[in-house]
Amino acid sequence: MHVKKTYLDYAASTPVDGRVLEAMLPYFSGHFGNPSSIHMYGQAADYALEQAREVVAESLNSKPSEIIFTGCGTESDNLALRGGALARRKQTGANRLLISPVEHHAVLHTAEQLRDEFGFELELLPVDEFGQVDPAAVAERLSNKVAVVSAVFANNEIGTINPIAEIGAICRKFDVPFHTDAVQAAAWLDIDVVRESVDLLALGAHKFYGPKGVGALYVREGVKPTPSQTGGKQEYGLRAGTQNVPLIVGMAEALKLARKEREKRISDVLPLRDILIDSVLSEIPRSKLTGHPVNRLPNHASFVFEGVDGNALLMQLDMAGFACSSGSACRVGTPKPSEILTSIGIASSWALGSLRVTLGKDTTPGDINSFLDFLPGLIARVRHTN
Ligand SMILES: *Cc1c(COP(=O)(O)O)cnc(C)c1O
């Protein structure tokens, strides 16, 4: 039996845009030089690298010298948090981390390591029922004892967008470094590091139609994180290792396109996303939207269904050709509700039935219609066999 495949998991990864692939190709074997080399081969690679840095900087409203290329979004979060915290403690003695509980594991597990292995105190910020951090709660907890504050720009699991500019302004007032994970946000939102008052901001290319294995970290001038990786002087001494020129060129091209096409992409995807949310909530009994109803990523819909086994649901969807996600890390055998859903107060009888549907720039009305034709019946069947 041939099943039509419909990918609805763009928050997990996106395909490389054809134009991005085109831009990358010359740098694999033609212009293969090491950007640190003196000769013409090196110069050609270095030129491409610095052009890419300018493009990334421009799309974030930063200076090129504030952009560090890394190996992925996770690495950027690690450098920001571990590097930022260690450097700040060395400088001022500050020993506390203030982290939102809805961070990606790249931030949360780094913070836990800093607590368990490096002697930092870790405090999780309160969030509301939509997973939003209250800037006033950050203000109440800030002092010169805080080494780094971190709040995700837009959450991957529930799509909620945080009030980053307000949190940033408060951290700036207390002169405490503020990191935001913008790995999801960069695909859809206009990001301006000056307006947002951030000190550190992480990107990962494969979430916005760039290649896997490349990311960037914005590091505000004057902030000097302790490098996670030591060696040569690449990336202003903050990230040693020969730069992956083709992937970096691809990331810059992908980010440029995301910025140029933002309005069109949003106006294509948002009405479909809204139809999806409205239909699911009206047609499926005991269903709930998770995350913020308005301040959420335009391509992002996430739900919980009471009394549904989320893993079974995903497997059945996959067999019918629909690639979706739960957004959580349920392990077979010992189902545990997602920490993020728990942190926003969702009971485990609901949280175990989570479903994340994320649209892409090329998702069609037909894709959403066929998904909506299939889902309500499937939920009823999965509930019945529970
Ligand atoms: C995907 C993701 C990451 C990790 O990025 P990689 O490039 O896959 O390492 C970090 N944070 C968020 C919010 C993400 O969605």
What this model shows, in words?
The protein is of the alpha/beta class. The chain is 40% helix and 13% strand. It has 12 helices and 12 strands. It has helices at residues 18-24, 40-60, 73-92, 105-118, 135-141, 164-173, 245-260, 262-283, 310-319, 339-343, 348-351, 365-384, and strands at 6-7, 67-70, 96-99, 121-124, 146-150, 178-181, 200-204, 215-219, 287-289, 300-305, 322-323, 354-358. Helix 1 (18-24) packs antiparallel against helix 7 (245-260), helix 5 runs parallel beside helix 6 and helix 9 (310-319) crosses helix 12 (365-384). The longest helix is centred in the last third of the chain and has 22 residues, at 262-283. The two termini are 27 Å apart. The model has no long low-confidence stretch (mean pLDDT 96). The protein binds pyridoxal-5'-phosphate (PLP). The site of pyridoxal-5'-phosphate has 15 residues, from helix 3.
